[in-house]
Amino acid sequence: MTNGLIINGTTRVCGLIGQPVEHTFSPLIQNTAFAALNLNYVYLPFQVFPEHLGVTLAAVRALNLAGINVTIPHKEAVLTHLDEVDQEARLMGAVNTVVNRAGRLVGYNTDGRGFLEAVTSRTEFEAEGSKVLLLGAGGAARAVAIVLALAGAKQIIIANRSKVRAWGLVRVLSEHTPVRAGYMHWKPANRVFAKDLCKIAEYADLIVQCTPVGMYPAVDHAPEFPFRVLQPRQLVCDLVYNPVRTKFLIAAEAAGAQVVDGLEMLVRQGAIAFELWTGRKAPVEVMREALELSLNRERR
Ligand code: NAP
Fold first, then answer.
1. Which of 48, 112, 156, 181 would be a feasible disulfide site paired with 17, CB 3.0-4.6 Å?
2. pLDDT tens, 64-101?
């Protein structure tokens, strides 16, 4: 029995593959959603080492799993084991959701869409014509940047420590989308950088914190940022979801900006995966409630 549902001969199996998988919230939010809609599905975590990725994907077909989520370290490597990859996921170079369509494995990346749904469901933000500042250029920043660019953002500036990573993202954006993409070398102690960051922060409609800075247990940390230039028309997001209210978000809100937390994105990206596997509208409120409860319990 799981969440009140009986596993029987027709139960559809979904899961998460990654390494490690112990700290994931996905089984909680997906099983809660299946139970809420009384769907005969179950979601399980599977620890998979890189050398077993190929046989794992073959097993998804052989065992007729409904689909899987993919996390670190397999998000990029999994692409070569799929029959089809959605355009957004291909541009991101990473897949976090696989759907088994009668033996054909189709890859998606729900992080970017999850982010966009999170901000548009909570605020009046419109991607079309927007000017965006991203802090960080890792996998999450890439997903957010590509979705915003495909949704019509006018300009995206990426501030990051590593030039190579940031330029890689600028190149993908410039070659495959109409957005004007640019890079700033993240050097908080440098006066020229601080001045340039002020100018861009003041001008941006949306600022997204895409680094792990401020994540539990380092909750007293926040990227250095000129919060004083923020205005109420601006939207500031943090992708970190533990804690939900990061030091960065608290400072942005205190300066008068609108804010959206990373928990909403986490819920929405899971909701999109749920909809891809089941074809049903995800019970987003129920999923969010389960996640909030669990995060609160963890902190006690
Ligand atoms: P990642 O691929 O490892 O990228 C991390 C990025 O942060 C890189 O650009 C890195 O810069 C930068 N960075 C790391 N430490 C830094 C520091 N001390 N100062 C300045 N920059 C720093 O990680 P990711 O997958 O993109 O994840 C980033 C964050 O987003 C994590 O906290 C993750 O939990 C969160 N996330 C949330 C959701 C959600 O649903 N809410 C989804 C995905 C990710 P360099 O390139 O210079 O190393």
1. 48
2. 999 999 999 999 999 999 999 999 999 999 999 999 99
As for ligand 1, residues whose beta carbon falls within 6 Å of it are 111, 114, 136-141, 160-162, 165, 186, 210-213, 215, 223, 239-241, 262, 265-266, 269
pLDDT at 299 over 80: no
Instruction: Kindly give the distance from the C-alpha atom of residue 239 to the centroid of ligand 1, in angstroms, as a whole number.
Output: 8
Atom of ligand 1 nearest to the CA of 115: 40
State the catalytic residues.
75
CA of 103 to the centre of ligand 1 (A): 34
The percent of residues above 70 in pLDDT, for the chain, comes to: 98
The full DSSP string for 84-128 is EE-HHHHHHT--SEEEEETTEEEEE--HHHHHHHHHHHHS----T
Instruction: Please state the pTM of the whole predicted model.
Output: 0.95
| 218 SS3 class | coil
